[in-house]
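Hey,

Quick one before I head out. I ran the complex with 6CS overnight. Inputs first:
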Amino acid sequence: MTRLTRALMCGAAAAALSAAAAQAAEWKFALEEAIHEVQGVYATKFKEHVEANSDHTVAIFPFGTLGESADITELTQLGAVQFANASPGFMGSEIPELNVFLMPYVLPEDPAVLADFFATSPTINETLAGKYPDQGLELVDMYPEGEVVMTTKEPVTSPADLDGVKFRVMTSPLLVETYNAFGATATPLPWGEVFGALQLGMIQGQENPVFFVESTKMYEVTDHITYAGHNSFTTAVIANKAFMDGLSDADRAVVEAAADAAYTFIIEYQQGLTESAQAKILEAKPSMTVTVLTDEQRAPFRAAAEKVRAKYIEMVGDSGKAVLEGFEADIEASQERVGGS
Ligand code: 6CS
């Protein structure tokens, strides 16, 4: 090889390297939760996959570093961050159809059925995904974060026990309808205000998955946990639409594969999480009571859920009705496929 050929080859290699370097980007991913909570575990897996399969890096911004859920959704719409979690409990204020996730006694309780439903449902992955572009967003993924439980200052076994209880819910309107129908006074608040409001006695209850009750120490400011089996927490990963539209086919494939890998991981990660989190709560606070409502005790909550269903259709209209029917058909298909309840 002549000196000239070597020099030319070095130049070409340097040009190729600098082109790759110019394309390598840092993608920002903002969370509604801390890094060691479920959304953080998902985002860490997503980051690992992106970084192992491309020149790009992912910087994760846990809850609190960029603001509340509404703030990180706005930052994603603006393109200041590329990815964020935007749970339907908040995003239902922007996309009314998403309130379907907040309807009590609609999502299946069996985690295997639930996991199949999120992965395969055309209503989620086509119909509801189709609502995000109008918001300047693209839906990347949706996944469950565990059965929600009520944590309250007084025991709850019936809607009568919620009478006069100011019960914090996320800000989507159907959650307000749900807890009002359950007999409480629903009080929508962003997450950052919940611990203080319970501590000061401004509210007397809230709902969340057990892992979150443990990690955020909700058990320090409430005394009773109630399982009513009424819902599972759903979150969504969103991306800035213009950013996604501008990706090369190869980079889009990296994002999609990273989301698939993180989805599989987060479903497995959650096996036994509710039980281990509950054990930690009881270890930290043995006086905390845990009540799993019987079918008979759940009956009045189920009856109240019928009113919420009517409210959803009234609020969202024909497209809401179509989403709800599609949802139920997709759940049935998952139940048949997985063979669960
Ligand atoms: O209740 C909330 O607002 C929060 N709950 C969970 C499980 N994740 C994020 C959300 O902000």
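The longest helix spans residues 295-338.

Talk tomorrow,
K.
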